[in-house]
Amino acid sequence: MTTLILDIPDQKDLDILLPLLSRLKIHFTSLQNPGIDDNEINNAISIILQGCEMSDFGDALLYQTETREDRVLPFSRN
Fold first, then answer.
1. Burial 14-53 (b: 16+ CB within 10 A, else e)
2. Structural domain contains residue 37
3. What is the domain extent for residue 33?
4. How high is the pLDDT of residue 1?
5. Most exposed: 7, 17, 43, 45, by fewest CB within 10 Å?
6. 21 near 28, Cβ under 8 Å?
């Protein structure tokens, strides 16, 4: 899979491109948001691409065992 990030300043060009992407069955996501500038979006994307440190994530089973409580489920006969 290849990911491309395009800056398309002209709405007419975007109007041509979107139907083509749909016809070719290419998944796309629009990052257009007038309240967020391009630097913020690029910074957020770079943080996501870096990932996170998982070596000290902890024991998921232990966490669930300590934090979950038994409860009566809705529509149960107990």
1. eeeeeeeeeeeeeeeeeeeeeeeeeeeeeeeeeeeeeeee
2. yes
3. 9-51
4. 78
5. 7
6. yes
